[in-house]
Amino acid sequence: MFALADCNNFYASCERVFNPALRNRPVVVLSNNDGCVIARSQEAKQLGIRMGVPAFQIEKLLTDHQVAIFSSNYALYGDLSVRVMNTLASFAPSIEVYSIDEAFLDVSGIREEELEPLARRIRQTVLKNTGIPVGIGIAPTKTLAKLANRMAKKTREAVFILRKEEDIRKVLSETSVSDIWGIGNQHARFLNQHGMVSALDLTAAPDEWIRKNMTVVGLRTKKELEGTPCISLEEMVPDKKAICTSRSFGVPQKELQQLEEAVATFTVRCAEKLRQQHSAATKIMVFIHTNAFRADQPQYARNRVITLSPPTNNSIALVKAAVAGLRAIFRKGYLYKKAGVIVTDFVPETEIQQEIFAVQASPRMKKLMESVDKLNRENKTTVKIATQGSGRDWKLRQERLSPGYSTRWGEIMAEGNCEIRAYSYSI
Ligand SMILES: [Mg+2]
Fold this sequence. Notes:
Distance between the termini: 27 Å
Radius of gyration: 25 Å
Low-confidence stretches: 414-427
CATH topology of the largest domain: Alpha-Beta Plaits
Oligomer: single chain
Bound molecules: magnesium ion
CATH superfamily of the largest domain: Reverse transcriptase/Diguanylate cyclase domain
Largest sheet: 5 strands, mixed
């Protein structure tokens, strides 16, 4: 049996944890540069605010209903996510963190009558430890657990066990094929064209037909809907094959120095991620481009790939390469909207060859990077490379950013934060 725990309206719920004045008030969170709505509280959904709508299009609605608006605060969401996942992990022998706000738990071996009390206990404990409400669906396969979770969201207890055959049939008949986990828009349209509307219709189709038209992946989904587990729990997240850090600028940039600061900062972030997974990169690509939507402005877009020899995860070496790449492609006279850095072609850190003059592979350099990572974990930018500058000019527009309640000591006592004592740490 699998349990799927999914946080309700995760980003909006995170904003509420430390700000009780937001309870029962509509809350929305905006994407980078405060562009579009990417999370909505239940109240905001009821106002008819759609996912992805640009904030400026619904300005009147937002003011009329006193909707609380936030810039995305990924430091806060990431930290609360870790706490939610740690709490969930204490309830099951293995857990797969599926996304920032969702995890599958292995609950096989639990007696049938124990499943519902367990789900309630998980929900209560996560709420108590983190302040985040979760919905829990339990079923014999991951695909059915996803459906059970959808059902859970519609109940007051936010818990749903999908186990008995007649219950499964009923839920399948009420679920449209487009709402099945793993069925994309294209396959959903294809199934509709062949008269299959509900998930139950899909299970009625012959195996061979599914395999022929939707490959073995489709067949696996069918089996899962029938209660035969085909997708197992993936406990280990495979290491990334490429790491990208890029941003659109709040205000377009035209000077090389500002772009250098931005590119250096993105590179340092890539380097941190590389060190986290103990990889070193063989290639780094830097790119810049103007705003393609501004037909009235001259357009320019270039990238440059630099081979790193030896492969490295050292911030200083990577920044040097990235800035050299940037200088080679930079042209004056354009308004740059976006820049980014991608590192690829990884080798394990332990395999970096010790070349005689390879300063960045030296044990002392490794130690320096470890110390920098440690300091920066505690407070995001304690130590920077000089090229990163202040970031004042190119930074994201984040006019409505909430405090880093759970990651920055200096921001804990922020205004409106009067319930800090109710917060319990789970370690
Ligand atoms: Mg969610």
